[in-house]
Every structure is written in C-alpha cells, then in structure tokens.
Specification:
The complex is a heterodimer of chains A (72) and B (756).
Chain A: H1 2-16, E1 22-30, E2 36-45, H2 46-55, E3 57-58, E4 64-65, E5 67-70
Antiparallel strand pairs in A: 1-2, 1-5, 3-4
Chain B: H1 2-20, E1 25-32, E2 43-46, E3 51-54, E4 60-64, E5 71-76, E6 83-87, E7 92-97, E8 109-110, E9 115-116, E10 125-128, H2 129-132, H3 140-145, E11 150-155, E12 159-164, E13 172-176, E14 179-181, E15 199-206, H4 210-213, E16 220-226, E17 234-244, E18 249-260, E19 263-274, E20 284-285, E21 290-303, E22 306-320, E23 336-337, E24 348-363, E25 367-383, E26 392-410, E27 413-428, E28 440-454, E29 458-473, E30 478-494, E31 498-509, H5 513-517, E32 519-522, E33 527-530, E34 538-550, E35 554-578, E36 581-603, E37 611-624, E38 637-645, E39 651-664, E40 680-692, E41 696-705, E42 730-742, H6 745-749
Parallel strand pairs in B: 1-7, 13-16, 33-36
Antiparallel strand pairs in B: 1-4, 2-3, 2-5, 5-6, 8-9, 10-15, 11-12, 13-14, 15-16, 17-18, 17-42, 18-19, 19-21, 20-23, 21-22, 22-24, 24-25, 25-26, 26-27, 27-28, 28-29, 29-30, 30-31, 31-34, 32-33, 34-35, 35-36, 36-37, 37-38, 38-39, 39-40, 40-41, 41-42
Classes of the chains: A alpha+beta (72), B mainly beta (756).
Chain lengths: 72, 756
C-alpha cells in the first residue's frame, strides 16, 4: 500500500516539475528589396530568453529590436 | 484578555470532549423480504457520516463509531431494490430487501441538505460520472454537455463553462464538496476550474439558489462530490488510460483509496494530453491543444459524534486559445492546419489551482453542526505575444467560512441556519503587460435560516437570507458595498407514483469587480473590456414547477419555470476599437424575462428489463425590457439515449451497449448583433465490457463519437463568429484496472448471527 501511495506522489511530483523553457526566436527586418523578412537567430532558454523578450535583441550597430519567440 | 482566551479554549475543549464522548455501534441484519434469508455483501452506508460496512455471508452487519444522531442510511445489494431509512445506533435493526423487478435507478442523496432525491423539495439533477461514462467523456465540459438542461459555452475543447438555464459565468456558482470554487469565472474563456479526477458525481440546481449557496447563484449551482472513501478496513486502487483519435488525446489516471479503522484516505493523480482537434474535413484547428495535470488527496476521520474531512486539490493546465489572430483580414481558413502538434504555442493560458478544504461536523442527539473553512488559490496567466512575459497575470486568493447548524424539533420539523463568509483578494503580477482588473479585495457575509416541515406526503420549506458585500480597489481608493435579502418558499406533494413540487426563490448578485473596474484587453475573449462603477445589483425571482411520475417501467419529468432578472448586467459591443480589439462595455438592462421547460422520459419495457430508453428535451427563451432577445441563449436540445445492460458474471462479459443522440435545434432568437446558428445532430455509440476475477476487475470500453462526422458550429461557442466548427468523428478506446483488497475478516468474525 505504501508503495502505491509513494508511487502516486512520485508520479505527481515528476508530472508537475516544469522543464526549462526554450524557444526559437526571430526578429523582423527589411531585406535589400525593402520586403519585411523574419530573421531567425536560434533557440534561447531560461533567463536569456526572458531578457531577450523584455529588452530586445541587440544588432551589430548597437540598436535593439523587438523579438518574437515561439513557445514549445 | 489572556484569561478570556483560556476560558474560551476551555469551553472549546469541553465542547469537543462532549462531542467525542459516546462510542456507539450500529448492528443489524439484512434479509430477503420473500425468503427471509440473509443477504450477503449488502452495503449499508451513511452519506452524511461517510461511514458504512458490508454484510457477512449471513446478512449481519456492524458499523462502529455510529453516533446516536438519527442519520439516513442507504442499503444496496446486487439484485435488490435500494432501501433508505433514518436510524440511530441505539437499536438492532432488521432490513428487508425486495428483489429487483427492473433495472431502476439507484437512490441518490442530494447535498448539502442530505435528503434523498425523491424527498427533496428543490429538484436536484444528479449525474454520476461513471454512468455518464457509458460513452467516454474526455473533459468535464463533455460530461456537462450531456446533462439534461445544461449547456456549455466553449472556446475549443480545452475551455468549457457551464450554462444553466441560459446563465453562466458569475451567475453559476461551483462548489466542490462544500468549498466554493473561485477561478475568475467572470471571463468568457475561464473554464469550470474542477477536473473530473476523483469525482463521483455532480449535482445541478437550476435557477436562483442564493439561500444555501450565497450571492451570485442566480443562474444555478454546480455541486461536485468527490468519490466515496473505500469500505471499512479495505483498500482499492485503479489505473486507467484512454485514447481518442480526433485530437490524439490520452487521459491517464491512477488512484488509491483505503480505510483503516476510523481513518480514510483517497489519493488520485491524472494527466491529459490533447493535440489540436480535427474537423470533419480532416484539417485541424490551430492552437486548440491543451494539457493538464491534477493531484487530489482527502483524509477523513470519524470518532463517535465527530467527523472531519481534509481535502486538497492541485491542478495545472496549459490551454491553447484558438481563433486568435492579429492579421487585418480574418477568415476561417486562417485557423486551419494540417500539422499535428501537442506542444504549447502562443497564445495560451497557464492556469494553476490549489484548493484546500477542512470540514468538521459534530452530531448531537437532535442536531448537527458543520464548520467548514477553505482556501482557494487561482493563478490565471495568459501568454499572448511573449513566452516569458504574460499578457495577463492574476492571482486570486479566496478564503471561505461556512457554519451550519441543523436542529430537528421533531420528525416533521427541522431548522437549518448558517453563516457564510468569504474574503477574496485579486493581485496582478508585476511582470504582466496588461492589468485588466486592478488589485482589489472583496468581502462577503451572509446569514440564513430555512425551516423544513412536513410528513411523508406533504412537505414545505421556507427561508430567508441576508447578504453583504464590500468591494475595495487599492489603487483607485474605491469602495462600494451592496446588500441583498433573499427568500425561498416551496412545497411538495409526494405519493408512491407522483411528485409535485412548486418553488419560489430569489437570488442576488452584486456586480463583480471585473464588471465595475475592468479597463483593458482580454486576450482570451479577444475584447477590450470597459467596466462601469455605477452598476447596481442583479435581482432574480423564479417560479419553478415540477411534476414527476414513475412506476416500475416508466418515469416522466416535466419542469416548466419562469425567471425574471432585474438590472441584468451584460457586455455590449461598441462601435469603437482600441489597439485593434473591439470595445465591449458592461451595461445593464432593466429586466430580463427567461422562461422555458425541461421534459424527460425514462422507459424500461416490461418484456425487456435490461433495455433503458431515456429522452429529454430542454427549451429556453429570454427577452429583455426592450423586447430583444438576449445574447448566448442556448437553443432547444433533444437528447435520446438507448442502453442495453447485461448480467454480471465471472470472467469476461459485456456490461452495456449505448447509443446516444443529441439533437441541437437551430437558434434564430438572437440578440441584435448576434448571429443565428444552424441545428445539428451528434450520434454516438459506446460498448463497455468487464473482465472480472474474485478480487480484481478490468473495464474495457470503446466507441465512436459524432459517427455521422457532422460539421457543426455550436451557438454557445466563442468561435462561432469565425465559423470554426466543432470536432468531427472521434474513435475512442479505454481500459481501467481495478484492484480491490478486502482486509475485513477480523471485523466480520466478530459479528453475532443476528438472523437466527
């Protein structure tokens, strides 16, 4: 009986444990012909992802652009 | 001050000591009324005390810790008609069981009055989850949809809100074993808040029910009751899994229930995984996926005149919000996808609920006292454009208190009085992009008294209640209070074959904080919502007539009603748009008249007792003082159910075969800016079988839902404006292993042979 209850508790604990959140992110930019394109810049996780969404992505010229990340 | 505290503690100890003093044992024998031979394995159970025991091979039974208080017990045995009687522990009883002629419905006790369905003046519709599962129900919304007179307002498959007699949201109050569930139910996209895990049944009280259930309950009450504890000194476990083809869903749950002398435990864990659902054309609705997990545990203890239950529920859901787009041009196909995906994608809701409930009950010779305290924590987050920064992040803490005292003056006169209180605080996360409802708190207090009178044939009840609510908004230095006085008067005439009930009742609902101070984007319902500080309280008055006829083969129920709601609050779409969201204002209409009827028939032909033919029809009409129809009023619903049951036996056998047909009529009686809906027909089929051994049982079920692959858009679906249809054909299969361990040999050997 103890084993069953411990089993239920263990499964519950594992089930409710969140794994680290990671997302593919992109920003929008204009290409050479002036068309809007999505520039993917890879998967980001945890605090890095949080900072990207709140501060933005810094381009080589030092400016920050809004990013869009997709939940998994 | 200190001495006063000690005095109070001393008095409380004396009170508890008195309450726990007298050990009693209820003894008796259960006999076949024809042969006078003992009935083995009959189960004698008190719903009120939550204790019971089975008879031994000679029909004898014994229940310890049974107080002298007259409690209603139910006696059930396979092949016999259910029995009920009031009993206290000071006598040895003989119970005669009549062999069952037809497969009639079992007795059901309505909570919280503890009265049998057939004796209650207020009609309570009871749905047992294991019975409704004759055809597999994946979500609590699907269970509710198949209850007569009950509808569901949905956003895809993951979000379902109960609609009772055309009213939902704040107007329908949900209880879980006496605990009022608060989960931001004002929102069109905030579901019921309770999962089906570990639930035995739910009860529906239609119409204003403020007297017992507090302010807000002007549409009705949904009362969920947890699974009973295992029988004394036994344990049972189960593991269950099911699969559905339409959204490639998997539901898995495990549970363990055991009792040891006076202590009782329940543990349940369940998870649900659902991909986007598919339409009749095979394409899927993007972001209709959802996952959820729940854990539930209960502890119960009985000691003579005292009973305690401690219950804890935890649930977490991540629910996609379908039908969401920021594109300038919106068309139905935009929301279609041919990809299969379970992974959460934006936008979605992240809902977490924690419920704790402690109930103490003390029994005296002629009365009982219930003291219940509870706390619910609901975290509602909506992620719209960013995965780490929520659009909305609200935390709702609600503490509730419920005191109830019932005194039986005589067998024909009983008084029930009580006090209900709630303190609720809503806080917004610092990280949230939007604040729809500012940080605020609400305090509720209600006092009520109900008198029950009558004999077996004629019964009356009348009661009064007064409520007081204060709403405070921190940031705006705003405070407003509301008071309400409500009544309920009813009578019933009960004969063996007929019951007539007539009830007049009122309800009161103070405007919710969201209706007064909302000012922001609600992503889930795709609205910019604006509240009104000058809203007044809603008041409802209902007259409800019920006629019930039944004999061994036929039962008929006819239930017309009329409900008038003054100062009806509703959302009205404006011409303006803010940040690309259409603006909706909360406004009031002088009065709304709602009327309709439920009709139900249940037939068992004499030549084939195993056949059940059930049918019900529900109709509702709602018109406001401008002579306009009201938004989101459910269309007529005709439900038909044909079930054939088979005999139980050892080894493999078919338990039942079910064909269910839900015919939803067209709804053309719509509000000025609302679109009408076409009627549709859903045909389902299910087959249930059992593999039975001496100790264990395996349940196997399979079936098809929406066999005709009907393409339909439900009138109450939030996606109807996008013409997004419901799920197409859906095959399912499920298996459940039940393991029952009996450990009561010692208990049974102590029985005296009372049948001799």
């Amino acid at each position: 009986m103890k084993k069953v209850i411990l089993g239920i508790l263990a499964i519950s604990a594992i089930g409710f444990t969140s794994c680290k959140k990671c997302s593919e992110c992109h920003y929008e930019a204009l290409d050479s012909s002036g068309m809007e394109v999505e520039v993917e810049f890879g998967e980001h996780c945890g605090d890095d992802l949080k900072d990207l969404e709140s501060i933005g992505y810094q381009l080589s010229d030092g400016t920050f652009v809004d990013v869009h990340c997709h939940a998994h | 001050m200190k001495s006063q505290t000690y005095k109070l503690m001393f008095l409380a100890l004396i009170f508890l000591d008195f309450a726990c003093c007298y050990s009693q044992v209820l003894k008796g024998v259960v006999l076949n009324s024809d042969t006078k031979i003992g009935v083995p394995d009959a189960y004698i159970y008190s719903f009120d005390l939550e204790i019971g025991n089975s008879t031994n091979e000679k029909g004898n039974f014994e229940i310890s810790q049974f107080p002298k208080y007259k409690s209603k017990i139910l006696i059930s045995a396979h092949g016999y008609e259910d029995q009920s009687m009031f009993i206290s522990s000071d006598s040895i009883i003989t119970i005669l069981m009549e062999p069952k002629h037809a497969m009639l419905d079992e007795f059901v006790v309505a909570t919280p009055t503890g009265k049998l369905q057939g004796e209650n003046i207020t009609y309570v519709t009871t749905i047992k989850l294991n019975e409704s599962a004759s055809i597999n129900n994946n979500t609590i919304g699907e269970v509710l949809t198949n209850a007569p007179g009950v509808y569901v307002a949905s956003v895809g498959r993951g979000i379902s809100k109960p609609v009772i007699r055309g009213l939902s949201g704040n107007r329908v109050v949900t209880y879980l074993d006496g605990l009022r569930i608060e989960n931001q139910q004002w929102g069109g996209d905030h579901g019921v808040g309770v999962t089906a895990l570990g639930i035995d049944r739910f009860e529906i009280i239609k119409g204003p029910s403020s007297l017992l259930y507090g302010s807000d309950a002007i549409g009705g009450v949904l009362y969920f009751v947890e699974a009973q504890y295992a029988k004394k000194n036994t344990s049972k476990s189960f593991i269950e899994t099911s699969f559905e083809s339409n959204s490639l869903s998997n539901n898995t749950s495990i549970g363990k229930q055991f009792t040891k002398e006076n202590s009782k435990f329940n543990f349940f864990y369940g998870s649900s995984l659902n991909a986007d659902y598919s339409l009749p054309n095979g394409l899927r609705i993007l972001d209709s996926r959802f996952v959820s997990q729940a854990f539930k545990t209960s502890y119960g203890y009985n000691k003579n005149r005292w009973k305690i239950n401690v219950r804890y529920n935890f649930s977490k859901s991540i629910i996609g919000i379908p039908g969401h787009s920021h594109k300038d041009s919106i068309y139905t196909e935009l929301f279609y996808t041919d990809k299969l995906d379970w992974r959460s994608t934006l936008p979605y809701q992240n809902i977490t609920n924690n419920f704790i409930n402690v109930e103490n009950k003390f029994y005296f010779d002629k009365s009982y006292l219930t003291m219940q305290i509870g706390h619910t924590i609901n975290s509602s987050k909506e992620f719209e454009e960013k995965v780490t920064i929520p659009g909305i992040d609200m935390l709702l803490n609600s503490s509730t208190l419920n005191l109830r005292y019932a005194y039986k003056f005589s067998s024909i006169l009983e008084l029930l009085s009580g006090v209900q209180g709630m303190y609720q605080r809503n806080t917004n996360g610092n990280n949230a992009e939007e604040i729809l409802i500012p940080n605020s708190f609400t305090t509720d207090l209600g006092i009520y008294s109900i008198l029950f009178a009558g004999n077996k044939k004629l019964k009356f009840q009348s009661g009064l209640r007064t409520d007081y609510r204060i709403i405070n908004v921190d940031s705006r230095n705003f405070q407003k209070d509301f008071t309400g006085i409500n009544y309920a008067v009813g009578g019933g005439y009960f004969t063996k074959s007929s019951i007539v009930r007539l009830n007049l009742s009122s309800g009161f609902r103070a405007p919710h904080t969201s209706e007064m101070i909302a000012n922001g984007i609600h992503h889930g319902s795709f609205q910019y919502v604006v509240g009104d500080l000058d809203l007044m309280t809603e008041n409802a008055n209902q007259i409800d007539l019920m006629y019930e006829y039944s004999n061994q083969h036929l039962a008929i129920v006819f239930n017309p009603f009329y409900n008038q709601i003054k100062n009806f609050i509703y959302l009205q779409r404006q011409d303006s748009v803010i940040e690309s969201y259409p603006v909706y204002n909360y406004v009031q209409n002088e009065k709304v008249n709602m009327y309709g009827a439920d009709l139900g028939v249940h037939y068992h032909p004499h030549f084939f007792h195993r056949l059940h033919i059930e049918s019900s029809y529900s109709y509702l009409r709602a018109i406001n003082s401008n002579n306009e129809f009201i938004d989101q009023i459910p269309p007529g619903k005709w439900m038909a159910n044909i079930k054939i049951e088979f005999d139980e036996k050892e080894g493999f056998y078919f338990k039942n075969i079910v064909i269910r047909n839900n015919f939803i009529l067209a709804q053309n009686e719509v509000a000025p800016n609302e679109i009408p809906s076409k009627g549709y027909n859903l045909l389902d089929f299910g087959i249930n079988s059992v593999v039975k051994t001496k100790q264990n049982e395996i349940n196997l079920n399979a079936g098809v839902k929406n066999i005709l692959n009907c393409n339909y858009v439900d009138h109450l679906s939030n996606l109807k404006y996008l013409n997004i249809a419901g799920p197409g054909i859906n095959y399912y299969i499920g298996i459940k292993f039940n393991i029952i361990n009996k450990q009561q040999k010692h208990e049974k050997s102590n029985f005296r042979n009372l049948s001799n």
